[in-house]
Write a structure and sequence with these properties.
alpha/beta; Amidase signature (AS) enzymes; eleven-stranded mixed β-sheet; two-stranded antiparallel sheet; 13 strands; about 35% helix
Protein backbone atom coordinates (compact mmCIF):
# COMPACT_ATOMS: atom_id res chain seq x y z
CA UNK A 1 0.00 0.00 0.00
CA UNK A 2 1.53 3.27 -1.10
CA UNK A 3 -0.37 5.92 0.78
CA UNK A 4 -2.89 6.81 3.42
CA UNK A 5 -1.82 10.47 3.44
CA UNK A 6 -4.50 12.78 4.80
CA UNK A 7 -4.51 15.04 1.73
CA UNK A 8 -5.84 12.14 -0.39
CA UNK A 9 -9.17 12.54 1.40
CA UNK A 10 -9.69 15.86 -0.39
CA UNK A 11 -10.65 16.05 -4.06
CA UNK A 12 -8.96 19.37 -4.80
CA UNK A 13 -6.75 22.11 -3.44
CA UNK A 14 -9.88 24.20 -2.89
CA UNK A 15 -11.42 21.49 -0.70
CA UNK A 16 -8.21 21.11 1.28
CA UNK A 17 -7.92 24.88 1.70
CA UNK A 18 -11.44 25.03 3.13
CA UNK A 19 -10.66 22.29 5.64
CA UNK A 20 -7.49 24.11 6.71
CA UNK A 21 -9.33 27.43 7.03
CA UNK A 22 -12.02 25.73 9.12
CA UNK A 23 -9.25 24.22 11.28
CA UNK A 24 -10.59 20.72 10.66
CA UNK A 25 -7.03 19.71 9.86
CA UNK A 26 -3.63 21.31 10.34
CA UNK A 27 -0.67 21.78 8.03
CA UNK A 28 1.47 19.81 10.48
CA UNK A 29 -0.90 16.84 10.34
CA UNK A 30 -0.83 16.96 6.56
CA UNK A 31 2.96 17.16 6.51
CA UNK A 32 3.42 14.29 8.95
CA UNK A 33 1.08 12.03 7.00
CA UNK A 34 2.81 12.91 3.71
CA UNK A 35 6.22 12.13 5.21
CA UNK A 36 4.90 8.79 6.48
CA UNK A 37 3.40 7.98 3.07
CA UNK A 38 6.68 8.82 1.33
CA UNK A 39 8.58 6.52 3.68
CA UNK A 40 6.08 3.73 3.13
CA UNK A 41 6.45 4.08 -0.65
CA UNK A 42 10.25 4.07 -0.66
CA UNK A 43 10.21 1.24 -3.23
CA UNK A 44 8.93 3.71 -5.84
CA UNK A 45 12.20 5.65 -5.48
CA UNK A 46 10.30 8.88 -6.15
CA UNK A 47 12.13 10.89 -3.46
CA UNK A 48 15.87 11.53 -3.36
CA UNK A 49 16.05 13.67 -0.21
CA UNK A 50 13.65 14.15 2.68
CA UNK A 51 14.38 16.25 5.75
CA UNK A 52 11.63 15.86 8.33
CA UNK A 53 12.63 18.90 10.38
CA UNK A 54 12.67 21.23 7.38
CA UNK A 55 9.23 20.02 6.30
CA UNK A 56 7.69 20.33 9.75
CA UNK A 57 9.20 23.81 10.20
CA UNK A 58 7.42 24.92 7.02
CA UNK A 59 4.22 23.27 8.25
CA UNK A 60 4.40 25.13 11.57
CA UNK A 61 4.85 28.40 9.69
CA UNK A 62 1.81 27.56 7.55
CA UNK A 63 -0.28 26.84 10.65
CA UNK A 64 0.76 30.19 12.11
CA UNK A 65 -0.47 31.96 8.98
CA UNK A 66 -3.75 30.06 9.08
CA UNK A 67 -4.24 30.86 12.75
CA UNK A 68 -3.73 34.55 11.99
CA UNK A 69 -6.24 34.38 9.14
CA UNK A 70 -3.53 35.14 6.59
CA UNK A 71 -3.51 31.86 4.70
CA UNK A 72 -3.55 31.88 0.90
CA UNK A 73 -4.70 29.36 -1.72
CA UNK A 74 -1.67 27.11 -1.19
CA UNK A 75 -1.01 27.51 2.53
CA UNK A 76 -0.40 24.08 4.07
CA UNK A 77 -0.45 22.26 0.71
CA UNK A 78 1.97 19.27 0.73
CA UNK A 79 4.14 19.44 -2.40
CA UNK A 80 7.60 18.33 -3.54
CA UNK A 81 10.14 19.66 -6.02
CA UNK A 82 11.95 18.07 -8.93
CA UNK A 83 15.61 17.81 -8.05
CA UNK A 84 16.71 20.37 -10.63
CA UNK A 85 15.30 23.28 -8.61
CA UNK A 86 17.92 24.53 -6.16
CA UNK A 87 16.76 24.59 -2.55
CA UNK A 88 18.15 25.74 0.76
CA UNK A 89 18.42 22.86 3.23
CA UNK A 90 17.51 20.02 0.90
CA UNK A 91 20.23 18.68 -1.38
CA UNK A 92 20.04 19.56 -5.06
CA UNK A 93 21.73 16.85 -7.12
CA UNK A 94 19.98 16.96 -10.52
CA UNK A 95 20.03 13.16 -9.99
CA UNK A 96 23.74 13.19 -10.77
CA UNK A 97 26.87 12.06 -8.94
CA UNK A 98 28.37 15.32 -10.14
CA UNK A 99 26.23 17.16 -7.57
CA UNK A 100 25.78 14.31 -5.11
CA UNK A 101 26.05 16.39 -1.92
CA UNK A 102 25.38 19.90 -3.21
CA UNK A 103 23.21 22.19 -1.06
CA UNK A 104 22.33 25.55 -2.56
CA UNK A 105 22.71 28.82 -0.63
CA UNK A 106 19.47 30.12 -2.19
CA UNK A 107 16.07 28.91 -3.45
CA UNK A 108 14.98 28.84 -7.08
CA UNK A 109 12.31 31.44 -7.87
CA UNK A 110 9.67 28.72 -8.36
CA UNK A 111 10.53 27.22 -4.96
CA UNK A 112 10.58 30.64 -3.30
CA UNK A 113 7.19 31.64 -4.70
CA UNK A 114 5.53 28.43 -3.55
CA UNK A 115 7.10 28.68 -0.12
CA UNK A 116 5.94 32.28 0.28
CA UNK A 117 2.46 31.12 -0.73
CA UNK A 118 2.58 28.73 2.25
CA UNK A 119 3.09 25.42 0.43
CA UNK A 120 4.95 22.80 2.48
CA UNK A 121 7.73 20.88 0.74
CA UNK A 122 8.08 17.19 1.58
CA UNK A 123 11.42 16.93 -0.25
CA UNK A 124 13.22 16.54 -3.57
CA UNK A 125 12.08 14.23 -6.35
CA UNK A 126 13.91 11.83 -8.64
CA UNK A 127 14.47 12.68 -12.31
CA UNK A 128 16.68 11.83 -15.24
CA UNK A 129 20.21 13.13 -14.70
CA UNK A 130 20.27 16.85 -15.52
CA UNK A 131 16.74 16.31 -16.93
CA UNK A 132 18.11 14.33 -19.88
CA UNK A 133 15.84 11.37 -20.56
CA UNK A 134 12.35 10.14 -21.31
CA UNK A 135 11.89 7.46 -18.67
CA UNK A 136 13.68 8.48 -15.45
CA UNK A 137 16.06 5.57 -16.09
CA UNK A 138 19.10 7.83 -16.31
CA UNK A 139 19.08 8.91 -12.66
CA UNK A 140 22.37 8.19 -10.91
CA UNK A 141 20.31 7.01 -7.93
CA UNK A 142 18.20 4.46 -9.78
CA UNK A 143 14.94 4.85 -11.68
CA UNK A 144 11.71 6.04 -10.16
CA UNK A 145 8.91 3.51 -10.71
CA UNK A 146 5.42 3.88 -12.09
CA UNK A 147 2.79 3.47 -9.33
CA UNK A 148 0.46 1.69 -11.78
CA UNK A 149 3.06 -1.02 -12.45
CA UNK A 150 6.40 -0.89 -10.67
CA UNK A 151 8.12 -2.71 -13.54
CA UNK A 152 7.34 0.26 -15.82
CA UNK A 153 8.92 3.68 -16.20
CA UNK A 154 7.01 6.70 -14.87
CA UNK A 155 8.22 8.79 -17.82
CA UNK A 156 10.93 11.38 -17.85
CA UNK A 157 12.55 13.47 -16.99
CA UNK A 158 10.09 14.53 -14.25
CA UNK A 159 9.31 10.89 -13.41
CA UNK A 160 9.56 11.27 -9.65
CA UNK A 161 7.26 14.31 -9.78
CA UNK A 162 4.52 12.39 -11.62
CA UNK A 163 4.95 9.20 -9.58
CA UNK A 164 4.68 11.08 -6.28
CA UNK A 165 1.38 12.70 -7.29
CA UNK A 166 -0.05 9.51 -8.81
CA UNK A 167 0.79 7.50 -5.69
CA UNK A 168 -0.78 10.13 -3.42
CA UNK A 169 2.49 10.99 -1.66
CA UNK A 170 1.97 14.71 -2.31
CA UNK A 171 -0.93 16.70 -3.68
CA UNK A 172 1.17 18.47 -6.30
CA UNK A 173 4.73 18.72 -7.52
CA UNK A 174 7.00 20.83 -9.67
CA UNK A 175 8.63 19.62 -12.86
CA UNK A 176 10.53 20.97 -15.81
CA UNK A 177 9.79 20.49 -19.49
CA UNK A 178 12.51 20.81 -22.12
CA UNK A 179 11.10 18.50 -24.77
CA UNK A 180 8.12 16.96 -22.98
CA UNK A 181 9.40 16.22 -19.48
CA UNK A 182 6.25 17.39 -17.67
CA UNK A 183 3.71 16.15 -20.20
CA UNK A 184 5.16 12.71 -20.84
CA UNK A 185 5.40 11.54 -17.19
CA UNK A 186 1.98 13.08 -16.49
CA UNK A 187 0.55 10.96 -19.32
CA UNK A 188 2.30 7.74 -18.27
CA UNK A 189 1.31 8.13 -14.60
CA UNK A 190 -2.28 9.26 -15.12
CA UNK A 191 -2.03 12.79 -13.70
CA UNK A 192 -2.31 16.28 -15.19
CA UNK A 193 0.66 18.47 -16.03
CA UNK A 194 1.28 21.69 -17.94
CA UNK A 195 4.20 23.38 -19.64
CA UNK A 196 3.45 27.10 -19.96
CA UNK A 197 4.59 29.47 -22.69
CA UNK A 198 8.37 29.81 -22.65
CA UNK A 199 9.38 32.78 -20.52
CA UNK A 200 6.24 33.04 -18.39
CA UNK A 201 7.81 31.19 -15.43
CA UNK A 202 11.24 32.13 -14.12
CA UNK A 203 14.15 29.78 -14.81
CA UNK A 204 16.27 31.37 -12.07
CA UNK A 205 17.61 28.62 -9.83
CA UNK A 206 16.55 25.87 -12.23
CA UNK A 207 19.61 23.83 -13.24
CA UNK A 208 19.93 24.38 -16.97
CA UNK A 209 19.79 21.71 -19.65
CA UNK A 210 18.68 23.55 -22.82
CA UNK A 211 18.33 27.21 -21.97
CA UNK A 212 16.12 28.14 -24.94
CA UNK A 213 13.79 25.23 -24.19
CA UNK A 214 13.66 24.63 -20.41
CA UNK A 215 10.45 25.72 -18.71
CA UNK A 216 9.03 24.92 -15.27
CA UNK A 217 5.54 23.51 -14.89
CA UNK A 218 3.36 21.92 -12.18
CA UNK A 219 1.79 18.46 -11.92
CA UNK A 220 -1.39 17.60 -10.00
CA UNK A 221 -4.40 15.32 -10.32
CA UNK A 222 -6.56 17.70 -12.31
CA UNK A 223 -6.56 20.95 -14.24
CA UNK A 224 -8.30 23.07 -11.61
CA UNK A 225 -5.42 22.44 -9.19
CA UNK A 226 -2.91 23.31 -11.90
CA UNK A 227 -4.51 26.76 -12.12
CA UNK A 228 -3.66 27.44 -8.47
CA UNK A 229 -0.06 26.30 -8.88
CA UNK A 230 0.77 27.85 -12.25
CA UNK A 231 -0.83 31.17 -11.32
CA UNK A 232 1.41 31.27 -8.24
CA UNK A 233 4.73 30.51 -9.94
CA UNK A 234 4.26 32.58 -13.11
CA UNK A 235 5.51 36.13 -13.38
CA UNK A 236 8.39 38.32 -14.54
CA UNK A 237 11.73 37.84 -12.79
CA UNK A 238 14.50 40.35 -13.45
CA UNK A 239 17.10 37.74 -12.44
CA UNK A 240 16.15 35.59 -15.45
CA UNK A 241 17.19 37.07 -18.80
CA UNK A 242 14.59 34.92 -20.60
CA UNK A 243 11.70 36.02 -18.37
CA UNK A 244 8.86 37.94 -20.07
CA UNK A 245 7.48 41.19 -18.66
CA UNK A 246 4.30 41.10 -20.75
CA UNK A 247 2.10 38.47 -22.34
CA UNK A 248 0.50 40.08 -25.40
CA UNK A 249 0.06 43.35 -23.56
CA UNK A 250 -0.98 41.79 -20.24
CA UNK A 251 1.58 42.03 -17.41
CA UNK A 252 3.20 38.69 -16.68
CA UNK A 253 2.23 38.40 -13.03
CA UNK A 254 0.15 36.21 -10.71
CA UNK A 255 -3.54 36.61 -11.47
CA UNK A 256 -3.19 36.54 -15.26
CA UNK A 257 -3.74 32.80 -15.66
CA UNK A 258 -6.53 32.63 -13.10
CA UNK A 259 -8.38 35.53 -14.76
CA UNK A 260 -8.05 33.91 -18.20
CA UNK A 261 -9.22 30.57 -16.80
CA UNK A 262 -12.31 32.08 -15.20
CA UNK A 263 -13.10 34.14 -18.30
CA UNK A 264 -12.87 31.05 -20.51
CA UNK A 265 -15.23 29.11 -18.24
CA UNK A 266 -17.72 31.98 -18.15
CA UNK A 267 -17.77 32.32 -21.93
CA UNK A 268 -19.37 28.92 -22.56
CA UNK A 269 -22.99 27.91 -21.82
CA UNK A 270 -23.57 25.14 -19.27
CA UNK A 271 -25.31 22.76 -21.68
CA UNK A 272 -22.62 22.88 -24.37
CA UNK A 273 -19.50 24.00 -22.47
CA UNK A 274 -17.27 23.54 -25.53
CA UNK A 275 -19.62 25.21 -28.02
CA UNK A 276 -17.61 27.01 -30.69
CA UNK A 277 -14.26 25.44 -29.75
CA UNK A 278 -12.34 24.32 -32.84
CA UNK A 279 -10.04 21.37 -32.12
CA UNK A 280 -7.24 20.85 -34.58
CA UNK A 281 -6.22 17.20 -34.97
CA UNK A 282 -2.89 16.83 -36.84
CA UNK A 283 -2.82 13.97 -39.32
CA UNK A 284 0.90 13.58 -38.54
CA UNK A 285 0.09 12.66 -34.92
CA UNK A 286 -1.66 9.45 -36.03
CA UNK A 287 1.15 7.73 -37.91
CA UNK A 288 2.18 4.08 -38.02
CA UNK A 289 4.17 4.34 -34.78
CA UNK A 290 1.10 5.07 -32.65
CA UNK A 291 -0.18 2.09 -30.63
CA UNK A 292 -3.82 1.03 -30.95
CA UNK A 293 -4.45 1.56 -27.23
CA UNK A 294 -3.31 5.18 -27.37
CA UNK A 295 -5.11 5.88 -30.65
CA UNK A 296 -8.40 4.51 -29.30
CA UNK A 297 -8.18 6.42 -26.03
CA UNK A 298 -7.40 9.70 -27.80
CA UNK A 299 -10.21 9.12 -30.31
CA UNK A 300 -12.68 8.49 -27.46
CA UNK A 301 -11.56 11.73 -25.80
CA UNK A 302 -12.04 13.69 -29.02
CA UNK A 303 -15.56 12.26 -29.35
CA UNK A 304 -16.27 13.40 -25.79
CA UNK A 305 -15.20 16.94 -26.69
CA UNK A 306 -17.51 16.81 -29.70
CA UNK A 307 -20.37 15.72 -27.44
CA UNK A 308 -19.63 18.77 -25.31
CA UNK A 309 -20.06 21.01 -28.35
CA UNK A 310 -16.59 21.26 -29.86
CA UNK A 311 -15.84 20.91 -33.57
CA UNK A 312 -13.06 18.68 -34.85
CA UNK A 313 -10.88 20.04 -37.65
CA UNK A 314 -8.27 18.00 -39.52
CA UNK A 315 -5.01 19.95 -39.76
CA UNK A 316 -1.48 19.31 -40.94
CA UNK A 317 1.79 20.04 -39.12
CA UNK A 318 4.06 18.79 -41.91
CA UNK A 319 7.35 19.28 -40.08
CA UNK A 320 6.43 17.15 -37.05
CA UNK A 321 9.00 14.46 -37.89
CA UNK A 322 11.72 17.10 -38.26
CA UNK A 323 11.25 18.09 -34.61
CA UNK A 324 13.28 15.06 -33.47
CA UNK A 325 16.50 15.84 -35.40
CA UNK A 326 16.11 19.58 -34.75
CA UNK A 327 15.66 19.10 -31.02
CA UNK A 328 18.49 16.58 -30.71
CA UNK A 329 20.85 19.08 -32.31
CA UNK A 330 19.74 22.19 -30.41
CA UNK A 331 19.26 20.71 -26.92
CA UNK A 332 22.59 18.81 -26.77
CA UNK A 333 24.42 21.87 -28.12
CA UNK A 334 22.98 23.99 -25.31
CA UNK A 335 23.66 21.23 -22.79
CA UNK A 336 27.29 21.10 -23.89
CA UNK A 337 27.60 24.78 -23.09
CA UNK A 338 25.61 24.70 -19.84
CA UNK A 339 27.39 21.69 -18.35
CA UNK A 340 30.88 23.01 -19.08
CA UNK A 341 30.75 24.72 -15.67
CA UNK A 342 31.09 21.33 -13.97
CA UNK A 343 34.87 21.12 -14.16
CA UNK A 344 35.84 19.89 -10.69
CA UNK A 345 37.22 23.28 -9.72
CA UNK A 346 34.47 25.42 -8.22
CA UNK A 347 31.81 22.97 -7.06
CA UNK A 348 30.56 19.51 -7.85
CA UNK A 349 32.45 16.24 -7.95
CA UNK A 350 36.26 16.31 -8.05
CA UNK A 351 38.27 13.18 -8.72
CA UNK A 352 40.65 12.02 -5.98
CA UNK A 353 43.52 11.11 -8.28
CA UNK A 354 44.84 13.32 -11.06
CA UNK A 355 47.99 14.77 -12.59
CA UNK A 356 47.48 18.28 -13.92
CA UNK A 357 44.46 20.56 -14.21
CA UNK A 358 43.33 19.14 -17.54
CA UNK A 359 43.54 15.61 -16.15
CA UNK A 360 41.53 16.64 -13.08
CA UNK A 361 38.76 18.14 -15.20
CA UNK A 362 38.64 15.14 -17.52
CA UNK A 363 38.57 12.58 -14.72
CA UNK A 364 36.02 14.56 -12.67
CA UNK A 365 33.60 14.72 -15.58
CA UNK A 366 34.12 11.08 -16.51
CA UNK A 367 33.32 10.01 -12.94
CA UNK A 368 30.56 12.54 -12.25
CA UNK A 369 28.45 12.38 -15.39
CA UNK A 370 26.32 9.38 -16.37
CA UNK A 371 26.22 7.78 -19.84
CA UNK A 372 23.27 9.73 -21.26
CA UNK A 373 24.68 13.07 -20.14
CA UNK A 374 28.06 12.21 -21.67
CA UNK A 375 26.34 11.16 -24.88
CA UNK A 376 24.48 14.44 -25.21
CA UNK A 377 27.52 16.54 -24.28
CA UNK A 378 29.56 14.80 -26.98
CA UNK A 379 26.79 15.23 -29.55
CA UNK A 380 26.38 18.89 -28.63
CA UNK A 381 30.10 19.62 -28.65
CA UNK A 382 30.37 18.08 -32.11
CA UNK A 383 27.50 20.25 -33.38
CA UNK A 384 29.24 23.41 -32.17
CA UNK A 385 32.62 22.57 -33.66
CA UNK A 386 34.03 24.75 -36.41
CA UNK A 387 32.82 23.41 -39.73
CA UNK A 388 29.70 21.77 -38.30
CA UNK A 389 27.99 24.77 -36.64
CA UNK A 390 26.52 26.07 -39.91
CA UNK A 391 25.72 22.62 -41.26
CA UNK A 392 23.86 21.37 -38.18
CA UNK A 393 23.11 23.91 -35.46
CA UNK A 394 22.05 26.79 -37.71
CA UNK A 395 20.03 24.45 -39.91
CA UNK A 396 18.25 23.08 -36.82
CA UNK A 397 17.39 26.62 -35.73
CA UNK A 398 15.94 27.35 -39.17
CA UNK A 399 13.79 24.22 -38.95
CA UNK A 400 12.71 25.36 -35.48
CA UNK A 401 11.42 28.60 -36.99
CA UNK A 402 9.50 26.69 -39.67
CA UNK A 403 7.93 24.43 -37.01
CA UNK A 404 6.75 27.50 -35.10
CA UNK A 405 5.35 28.94 -38.35
CA UNK A 406 3.37 25.73 -38.93
CA UNK A 407 1.64 26.18 -35.56
CA UNK A 408 0.85 29.84 -36.22
CA UNK A 409 -0.63 29.00 -39.62
CA UNK A 410 -3.17 26.56 -38.15
CA UNK A 411 -3.96 28.69 -35.10
CA UNK A 412 -4.60 31.75 -37.28
CA UNK A 413 -6.79 29.92 -39.80
CA UNK A 414 -8.14 26.62 -38.56
CA UNK A 415 -8.34 25.95 -34.82
CA UNK A 416 -8.26 27.26 -31.25
CA UNK A 417 -6.50 24.31 -29.66
CA UNK A 418 -4.61 21.29 -30.98
CA UNK A 419 -5.16 17.80 -29.53
CA UNK A 420 -3.59 14.39 -29.99
CA UNK A 421 -1.51 11.78 -28.17
CA UNK A 422 1.29 12.64 -25.75
CA UNK A 423 3.30 9.45 -26.28
CA UNK A 424 3.18 6.75 -28.98
CA UNK A 425 2.70 3.97 -26.40
CA UNK A 426 1.83 3.53 -22.73
CA UNK A 427 4.68 3.21 -20.21
CA UNK A 428 7.40 0.80 -21.32
CA UNK A 429 9.20 -1.72 -19.13
CA UNK A 430 12.21 -0.42 -17.23
CA UNK A 431 15.31 -1.34 -19.22
CA UNK A 432 13.40 -2.14 -22.42
CA UNK A 433 15.57 0.11 -24.60
CA UNK A 434 18.92 -0.39 -22.89
CA UNK A 435 20.47 -1.87 -26.06
CA UNK A 436 19.49 1.18 -28.13
CA UNK A 437 20.09 4.36 -26.12
CA UNK A 438 18.53 6.60 -28.79
CA UNK A 439 15.25 4.61 -29.03
CA UNK A 440 13.71 6.72 -26.27
CA UNK A 441 14.26 9.82 -28.37
CA UNK A 442 11.50 8.62 -30.71
CA UNK A 443 9.02 8.64 -27.82
CA UNK A 444 9.24 12.46 -27.84
CA UNK A 445 7.78 12.78 -31.35
CA UNK A 446 4.55 14.53 -30.22
CA UNK A 447 5.96 16.71 -27.45
CA UNK A 448 9.06 18.20 -29.08
CA UNK A 449 7.43 20.52 -31.62
CA UNK A 450 5.50 22.64 -29.04
CA UNK A 451 8.70 22.96 -27.01
CA UNK A 452 10.72 24.09 -30.02
CA UNK A 453 8.00 26.66 -30.75
CA UNK A 454 7.78 27.77 -27.09
CA UNK A 455 4.04 27.07 -26.96
CA UNK A 456 1.99 26.12 -23.88
CA UNK A 457 0.96 22.47 -23.80
CA UNK A 458 -0.42 20.02 -21.27
CA UNK A 459 -1.38 16.41 -20.68
CA UNK A 460 -4.53 15.13 -19.00
CA UNK A 461 -5.63 11.51 -18.40
CA UNK A 462 -7.99 10.18 -21.08
CA UNK A 463 -8.02 6.38 -20.79
CA UNK A 464 -6.13 3.16 -20.12
CA UNK A 465 -4.34 0.48 -22.08
CA UNK A 466 -5.52 -3.12 -22.46
CA UNK A 467 -2.53 -4.56 -20.57
CA UNK A 468 -2.97 -7.07 -17.76
CA UNK A 469 -2.23 -4.15 -15.48
CA UNK A 470 -3.99 -1.28 -17.30
CA UNK A 471 -1.67 1.69 -17.85
CA UNK A 472 -2.74 5.36 -18.09
CA UNK A 473 -2.89 7.21 -21.40
CA UNK A 474 -2.70 10.98 -21.75
CA UNK A 475 -4.36 13.49 -24.08
CA UNK A 476 -2.13 16.27 -25.43
CA UNK A 477 -3.55 19.81 -25.51
CA UNK A 478 -1.49 22.48 -27.29
CA UNK A 479 -2.45 26.15 -27.27
CA UNK A 480 -1.27 29.38 -28.84
CA UNK A 481 1.12 31.66 -26.96
CA UNK A 482 -0.09 32.80 -23.51
CA UNK A 483 -3.29 30.71 -23.69
CA UNK A 484 -2.60 28.76 -20.48
CA UNK A 485 -5.89 29.86 -18.89
CA UNK A 486 -7.88 28.77 -21.93
CA UNK A 487 -6.05 25.43 -22.10
CA UNK A 488 -6.72 24.77 -18.43
CA UNK A 489 -10.39 25.69 -18.79
CA UNK A 490 -10.72 23.32 -21.76
CA UNK A 491 -9.12 20.53 -19.74
CA UNK A 492 -11.32 21.32 -16.73
CA UNK A 493 -14.53 21.05 -18.79
CA UNK A 494 -13.41 17.66 -20.05
CA UNK A 495 -12.60 16.51 -16.51
CA UNK A 496 -16.01 17.67 -15.29
CA UNK A 497 -17.55 15.26 -17.82
CA UNK A 498 -15.15 12.32 -17.26
CA UNK A 499 -13.46 10.59 -14.35
CA UNK A 500 -10.11 9.48 -15.81
CA UNK A 501 -8.27 11.98 -13.61
CA UNK A 502 -9.92 10.51 -10.50
CA UNK A 503 -8.63 6.98 -11.09
CA UNK A 504 -5.83 5.92 -8.77
CA UNK A 505 -3.34 3.05 -8.75
CA UNK A 506 -4.58 -0.01 -6.87
CA UNK A 507 -2.26 0.64 -3.94
CA UNK A 508 -2.64 4.44 -3.76
Amino acid sequence: MYSNALHTEFSSIADLRQALNDRRISAQELAQSALAAAEKAADLNAFLHIDTELTLAQARAADALLAAGQGGPLTGLPIAHKDVFVTQGWRTTASSKMLGQYVSPFDATVVDKLQKAGAVSVGKLNCDEFAMGSGNEFSAFGPARNPWDATRVPGGSSGGSAAAVAAGLVMASTGTDTGGSVRQPAALCGVSGIKPTYGTVSRYGMIAYGSSLDQAGPLARHAQDLVELLDCISGFDERDSTSLENCKGTPNQPGRIRADFEAALASHPAGKPMQGLRIGVPTEFFSAGLSNDVAQAVEAALREFEALGATRVSISLPRTELSIPAYYVIAPAEASSNLSRYDGVRYGHRTHSYGDLADMTSRSRAEGFGPEVKRRILVGTYMLCHGYYDAYYLQAQRIRRLIADDFQRVFNADCDVIMGPVTPTPAKLIGANQDDPTADWLADIYTLAPSLAGLPAMSIPCGFSQDAKPLPIGLHLIGNYFSEGHLLATAHRFQQATDWHQRKPEHA
